[in-house]
Amino acid sequence: MAQNTSMEEFEALLNESFEMDTPNEGSVVKGKVIAIEAGQAIIDVGYKMEGRVDLKEFANPGEAPDIAVGDEVEVYLRAAENARGEAVISREMARREEAWDRLEKAYADDQRVEGAIFGRVKGGFTVDLGGAVAFLPGSQVDVRPVRDAGPLMGLKQPFQILKMDRRRGNIVVSRRAILEESRAEQRAEVISNLTEGQTVEGVVKNITEYGAFVDLGGVDGLLHVTDMAWRRVNHPSEILSIGETVKVQVIKINKETHRISLGMKQLQEDPWDLVGAKYPLGSVHKGRVTNITDYGAFVELEPGVEGLVHVSEMSWTKKNVHPGKIVSTSQEVDVMVLEIDAAKRRVSLGLKQTMRNPWEVFSETHPEGTEVEGEVKNITEFGLFIGLDGDIDGMVHLSDLSWDERGEDAIQHYKKGDIVKAVVSEVDVDKERISLSIKALGGDKFAEAVGGVKRGSVITVNVTAIEDGGIEVEYEGMKSFIRRSDLSRDRSEQRPERFSVGDHVDVRVTNVDSKSRRLGLSIKAREIAEEKEAVEQYGSSDSGASLGDILGAALKGSDD
Question: Does residue 557 have a pLDDT over 50?
């Protein structure tokens, strides 16, 4: 009977042990540290199961393991038994599961979570969120790019979860969102205490090409390069350095965007208030070239006061060259004040006005008739351009090249670079023109030759050629042509062949053409004039009656 009872008890205990709930693999269970040896913690998870966990799984990044015998911990049961009969457990996986539950709730409630940056990866950093590892993109570390993230490593700080996917084990967090939120609150508080026109002190935080960001105590303001000084500032680093404390004026506050515009020059005296008195029109001043453009050069008269020398006011002679070939940056030059527009803060300056007009100088030193010498600079269809003193040019028109040749033929004798002599025939200062004449170098031979010859004069010429239409003759080196019809009063004598080269013939001047440089000559006209003069003086010997009597009688007879 007793034997039967003990068997029943044993069977009940056996059934009870089978019915006992054992933890499922893949779940989190509680255990107790019963020993620490060889860098591992031996944990009793109940159900007569023990397992080992590396001590490093009990340590936060950058910290020593926090574990002791007797501590109760939660571990993740990966397998109930391994080849050595021990449970396969993990503290890290338990922490991860616990962390994911906590993080999902925080993400759903849009709450911040605490974590520590512990590693650097491509494109950003890794963050320990109390068991779960998240990715922190580089762009989400701070409101501005961070060059050295060393001071942030291992530091516990809040983060905002941007995205998470438990199935893929993916969490993305942002530190920047936390900073921007607190920054916005701080900015709103600081901005509420600022007013436009107020003078404040700040620290230069960052410098860019277009200006500098100044920290006003929790809020940044932009100090644009054009508001740093009244003078031209090419780059903010010329007058500011990072970390420098500066006094600035609040120019504008945008309440909606929280943007603050600052100025430094507004705290200084505006030099334009005295420009009109210091720089009267027509006055000459020294200045420094600060900038060169295609249309001119800017010259600084004093810090904050710049004027433009337009390209047309830079040189008397260089008309179509770039200003950079006349002046250079930082060069000191003398300029004349031409115009002031105080409203637009503009000063028009002249460079050439500080030098004498080279055409005026030339006119004074080279009156008409002066002989000059220069190089042929250019040849055009209407004449030659000759380089003269003062870097100016004079022009020899085709008609002023030669007395004897047509201009189109005479110009063929010249080429660029030739050194030629000419005579100044006219200087027009207003139009900046100088007219020269090469043919006038030896004087006007025609005028000299026919100086005493007038229309009706009788001169002696030398026959130089016999042609079918008449004869060519020469008078004092000047050639002329007598047509066949002018060779004699008698038609029968109008034969060129009756003359010979070298004959001397008396002719009457019928025309003096200075423009074409020709004399109109006629033997016939001379004969008629001589006969008329003889008749008037002596009368006719025919029948004792004068030619007038004969003509008078003939006319009277025709009337009857």
Answer: no
CA distance 392 to 256: 64
Alpha carbon of 178 to those of 113, 174, 221: distances in Å? 10, 7, 21
Query: 10 Å Cβ neighbour count for 333?
Result: 19
pTM of the predicted protein model = 0.43
Q: Could you report the per-residue pLDDT of 206-263, keeping only the tens digit for each?
A: 989 889 998 887 788 899 988 888 777 888 888 888 888 889 888 888 877 778 899 8
The residue with tokens 């029948």 is 543
In this structure, what is the dihedral angle of CA atoms 547, 552, 553, 555, given to the nearest 10 degrees?
130
What phi and psi, each to the nearest 5 degrees, are found at residue 548? -65, -40
Q: What is the DSSP string of 456-502?
A: T-EEEEEEEEEETTEEEEEETTEEEEEEGGGS-SSGGG--GGGS-TT
Rg (CA), the chain: 57
Mean pLDDT lowest for which of 86-100, 135-149, 406-420, 481-495? Answer: 86-100
How does 168-206 read in b/e, with b if 16+ C-beta sit within 10 Å? eeebbbbbbbbbeeebeeebeebbeebeeeeebebebee
| Statement: residue 349 has pLDDT above 90 | yes
Q: How far apart are CA 426 and CA 407, in angstroms?
A: 19
Query: For residue 212, which of 224, 195, 200, 229 has the smallest C-alpha distance?
Result: 224
**Cβ contact 285:297 at 8 Å:** no
Provide the residue count of the chain: 560
CA distance 557 to 71: 175
The DSSP bridge partners found for residue 289 are 299
Return the ∠ at Cα 41 (arms to 38 and 46), rounded to 5°: 140
Whether the CB-CB separation of 540 and 550 falls below 8 Å is answered with yes
Q: In what order do the strands lie in the sheet with 27-37?
A: 49-54, 40-46, 27-37, 72-79, 88-90
What are the phi and psi torsion angles at 177 (to 5°)? -60, -40
CB 114 within 8 A of CB 80: no
For strands 332-341 and 346-350, give the pairing. Answer: antiparallel
In 181-258, at which residue ranges do the beta strands (DSSP E only) sit?
Answer: 199-207, 211-215, 220-224, 245-254
